[in-house]
Amino acid sequence: MFYHRKELIQPVNVGKPDARFGTFLLEQFGGATGELTAALQYWVQSFHVENAGIRDMLQDIAMEEFSHLEMVGKLIAQHTSKIDQTAVYDAPLFKLKGNGPHFLDSQGACWTAAYINEGGNVVRDLRANIASEAGARQTYDALIGACDDKGTKQALTHLLTREITHANMFMKALDAMGKLTDPMFGNVPPDETVKLVFNLSHGEDVRGPWNEAPDFDYVADPQPKGGMPPAPVNPSDERQAETKTKAKSHKVR
Fold first, then answer.
1. pLDDT (tens digit per residue) in 199-223
2. Fewer Cβ neighbours under 10 Å: the N or C end of the chain?
């Protein structure tokens, strides 16, 4: 069951409408790192999770992301409220499609379900979610840097803050499963190369915990071990033509 409360989860008060900035805000409405993507991603993931606590967490965050989508939509609506007074080259998307939010990103590309990152494994999904929150946080950071309206900045700062909170929640869930720092998940055991790291970018090589013992075995001068691959077999039209030519030459003789 769903229901909607008309009050916003946090205030949205734009002091100086700027339709051009409204175009930038579309990135968080219909873009890859936007709130619609996050809300649908976490909601769909919840159907795959047996753990009741993690399932509930995903659903709670998904609903909050829908509330954030509403905030971004209201920001866009307020920033485009004077579109009739805006030069077409400052905000062509809104001049053509009308004011308010649309399922587009800041470049005019349509939202697509391909943005959603879910795979039916709770560890895999939680790790993907941490990356999703990081992408959204980075976008909000850029939006705040491009904005000079106090009310808009306050709303965007809140949205950025919640990305940090959600990432922390996903990390805590992974930690509770013992998977925060364990890269292994699933049922297929790795082969004997799992600890090998290869020095494949030669020059000023730098070592660190990502390629040092005891977790890794560093191969300073890796050598190929697969041998030469077999030659390709391609029964193409050209090959058939070549065979016919050879057969013809044999007849002439």
1. 999 899 999 999 999 999 999 999 9
2. N
Output the six-digit token pair for 215. 């977790």
Task: Locate all alpha helices (DSSP H) within the chain, ordered by sequence.
Answer: 19-25, 27-30, 35-46, 52-79, 92-97, 122-145, 150-176, 237-252
Distance CA 30, CA 118 (A): 18
Q: What is the largest CA-CA distance in the chain?
A: 92
Q: Which residue has the tokens 């391609």?
A: 234
Q: Which residues of 142-153 are buried (b: 16+ CB within 10 A; e: fewer)?
A: ebbeebebebbe
| d(C-alpha 54, C-alpha 173), whole Å | 7
